[in-house]
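Pair request: fold both.
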Amino acid sequence: DVTFIWTPSPRASFYDIKITRDKTEDRDWIRVQETTYTVRNSLLYDVIKINFKAYGSMIESTMIYKVSKARIQIGDPVNISWTAAFFPITGQYYVYHTYKVNKPIFQLQNEGILYGGHNVSNKYRYITRPYNSVNISFEIRHTTVDDAGYYAGGPTADSVWSGGGVVLIVSGKPMRPNIEGNLSIMVETFSNITCSSKSTSAPDYYTKLVTLTYTWFVNDTEIEGETNQTLSLKVTKGQVYNSYSCTATEEDLVSVWSNTVQINPLYGPKKVNITPNPSINKYDQIEVRDGDFVGPFNCSADCNPPCNITWRMKNSTGFYDVLSETGTLFLQVGIYMEMFCCVAKWVHDTTIYEIIKLDVQYIEEINLYLNDTLHSNVDVLENTPLRIACFVDGNPAPTIRLSRGQGHTETNLEEKEGKWLNFTIESTQCSHTDIYKCTWTSAVFGSSYVLFNINVLCNPTIDTSENFKTKYSFKSGFDLKLEVAVPLIANPPPQKSNLTWVGPYTVPLNTVISQRDEIYKQLFVSFIPVVDQTYFGNYSLQYRESIICTITIIAEDVPQTPTNFTSNSYASGYVNLTSVSGFSGGPYQLFILSIYNGSIWEIVGNISDPGEGNVAHFDPGLLTPGHEYAFRLESCNRINCTFPPIETLVTIK
């Protein structure tokens, strides 16, 4: 500091002053009571001027102080010079160094110099000659920070404060900076980091006035335009990869580089990443079979600090935690599972998630419901309804088919895509008795089936699908028996003891019951004795007390001779023979056609009976043109033939 002292004015109680530092003058006058004024931080300036006047006076006085400074770096030599107001007549002039203490460093005499009692010094070398000159000049060698301070001289120690001395500033590199500040901060906000350093120059009262400049670096590259002690950064995620450092500069002396710091940007998750990317169907689902494993899927989220990653599973009742290892899901799937959810939870209660929907594919065994009850087989009464339901729980829904029979006799009854197939027989008949099959087909799981029996219980009836004859022409005789075959439908097959023929006579039955092509079809064969004419008449077949059918046995007649036996040679070598049948001659009636070969009649064909009064035709094939042929036609049954036969002659064209 520099203190200006002036002589007080006799009548002044106040003084107005104005300070000029180098070329910068204070804008306003300052009013003071004392006759002294101290200018702080004088080392910042080269010239300090004070203008002062008594309060109310127009007369100004001026005092000027030139700040004498010398600046060097540690280790450099320096010459210190000033002009003394006079050289003492005593011949003793002391040069003082004032820093932390005020001490003389050497003594000038008219004829020489003493350095602490010695004529020579390794530290100081006096330059001016003669020694008693007012031009004081000396060299300081091997400078250190301890050499910094104020150098002045005079005959006494107090005289050094009268001015005229030189301040030696020994400059050193600023201390290695240390970067301070909050390095962990939310993104999209600003982080302020400070480059903290101190001047190592001396004297310390000078360093208090020093303003250091700073240089900032990112990844060892200078950040242009950033010279402030504090660096303000808008925090982004990418800054996690940046390293920041700084240097401090005093004049042209640059410190060593600071420590390196990294911004720790804090941010929560924006999205959850699942890798590898799940392969999904058009419904955004993973298709997986029941019992197979899903994964491994790794779940991650970009968070700092890291998010807590958990996997959860959802079924029809809610969400449940599932075991995972370091965010990796590898889990066996069950049909109850609907989705997996990866949850990323951050420290500030920020939670996001990503889901993996599941399409769990499975197929269950067939459940068969007969009349709404779980069955594998069923017995039902005839003429009652039967509801058949095939249920197959599966995903994707299978195609279910209901069929009847097996092998080449299998017939489809119903087919439907879905879990249920329903089929109703409104009124069961014996003919519904069979093996049935429920079959499911799936594009994923192939196919399977279950067989079941429907057994319709029915009393014996005539099988109307068969040509059952109810009128019989038969001859009588002591040992003659009429064979009657009755096609029955019954389930279970009837007992022979429950079947009886009731007719003109109660006759013992010789019967055989055999199964036909279906389990519910039987052939009941009876041999009814026809001893004489009294045995002809109606016979009823009874099952217990119910009549199944009635047949009529009549006497068998002799055939009648055919009429209108004509011939027509319609083409070269061909003839067409025509006749009209007589009345029915009983069973096994036929017509025998013969041709005369010159010696005997040779049978050439048997013609079925077309029925009484109907026309029968016959073509004997290729004959010799121009020849005359004789044809004979007889009507026969198993008893005999008509006599005489009918004959005709024809000439072949």
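--- second member of the pair ---
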Amino acid sequence: MTTPTHHQNIMNFLVDVLENKPHRGLLTAFRHSGKSTVVGIFVACVLYMRPNTRILVLSAETTLAARMVNHIRNILENHPLCVDMIPKNKKEWASGRITINRSVGIREPSVICQGIHGNITGSRADLIICDDVEVPNTCNTAQKREMLRERLRELDFILSPNGTMIYIGTPHTTDTIYRTCDTD
């Protein structure tokens, strides 16, 4: 069984955004194309290659972001290369946050999730994944779209210098927030 070409293209795009400045990317594709699945695999690979990376998964709702973190955790728990990454003490191994074995002295979890309107003040991240922040209930009026844009601008204060920000989603309106995402 081979990996579908569009999944390979998605992964290549994600790696390119991570490795090359300005470290900003926007991935839009049709619903059920496997975007979030490939992104979960990508995040697990980033943690494998760079275990001290702090990752924030942001979605329209915390439950949606938690599904992504659960997907990442499942990959880490079941992939043979990731066995040594799983901590013996799973204190930070829950649905909304996971911390892999890594250098001490890092305050933030390896991966944490939050809804777009949740409290992210004081957080720091090296990689921010904005997965489906635009959904019908966050973009069905001009006022909601502007509030969403304002909230997303705050992410620059959370992202570490030389950090990476990737938006993933499907546009839900002609005035989609994805047209104005800071990707360059």
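Observation on the second member. The first strand starts at residue 24 and ends at 28.
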